[in-house]
Amino acid sequence: MDYKKLIKSRTVRIKLMRILSFVPDAWMVQLQYRLKTGRKLNLKNPQRYTEKLQWYKLNYRDPLMAKCVDKYEVREYVKQVGLENILNPIYGVYSSPEEVDWDQLPDQFVAKDTLGGGGNDVLICKDKSKLNKAEFYEFLARWTQPVKGKHPGREWVYDNAKHRILIEKYIPSSPQDGGLIDYKFFCFSGKAKFLYVIADRDLGNGAGLGIFDKEFSRLPYERADERPLKRDIQRPINYEQMIECAEKLAKPFPHARIDLYNQNGCIVFGEITFFDGSGYMKFEPDGFDEMMGKKFEKCGDK
Questions:
Q1: Per-residue pLDDT tens digits for 167-202
Q2: How many helices (H) and strands (E) would you count in the chain?
């Protein structure tokens, strides 16, 4: 069942899921897993990566995870592990749109919801003179509205957290070269095993996604819900350094996805997430789900 065709508005889908917050987490993830993957969820003996992500949501609780998914709070963690040099400069973090001084904003910047995900809560400004000021503030106001109920995918790290506005430096890139290429490292027990390479991003409309092994060889698998990467992406010259950064950031966790950029040889931190796609994605061929699952050792309650 393609639930997105039944309820086309993402906003409506999220509101509906929050209304259903009274439903126990285990029941809800089993229902969502069935609807979105077409399979029954095995929580007693999970084997697939997507199954283990559901177990991870329900059973593993480390307060550091909640800090790391906040795009502002995570900066302190990045500094603590000695990687302050890969942080993108910021212009400020704000609790409400009224705190954002339009006149102090640079001509180019990126605004983000500190708890946003999936590229849905990002505004890229390449020329402030062409940005509608009123619409900009309305956009920010949507991010900071009070949120009631549980996270739609039952990702506990976002519950009871405060949404804020983060404005950071815009990183120039060339569309001819694929734009700002995103390297998403999948780390298990602190070791990188796979990565997504994402290029040709059209914000809000997807991007080209390729799956690579740790040696940066393209694998014959695709995300069924994403456009395949058509572009030939060369291994970055300082790729080994990127792996070192990803593994250092992922070290405390049974599993984490570490997102990095690499523009003109400069590594830039993106974000940390723990539940890629909320664990509801499908792969083609399907065997990659099981392959990833073997790398994800089951962790005990925390």
A1: 999 999 999 989 999 999 999 999 999 999 999 987
A2: 9, 12
For tokens 């339009």, the residue is 102
Question: Tokens at residue 278, please?
Answer: 């909320």
Q: What is the pTM of this model?
A: 0.93
285 cis-preceded (ω within 30 degrees of 0): yes
Nearest-angstrom CA–CA distance, 23 and 299: 25
- 89-170 — its CATH code? 3.30.1490
Q: What confidence score (pLDDT) does residue 206 get? A: 74
Q: Is residue 244 pLDDT above 80, yes or no?
A: yes
Retrieve residue 201's tokens. Answer: 């991003």
Provide the b/e sequence for 38-55 (b: ≥16 CB within 10 Å).
eeebebeebebbbbbbbb
**pLDDT per residue as tens digits for the range 94-116:** 999 999 999 999 999 999 999 98
What 3-state class would DSSP assign to 9? Answer: coil
Nearest-10 Cα torsion for 173, 182, 65, 245: -90
Domain spans of the chain? 61-87+174-302, 89-170
Homologous superfamily (CATH) of 61-87+174-302 is: ATP-grasp fold, B domain (3.30.470.20)
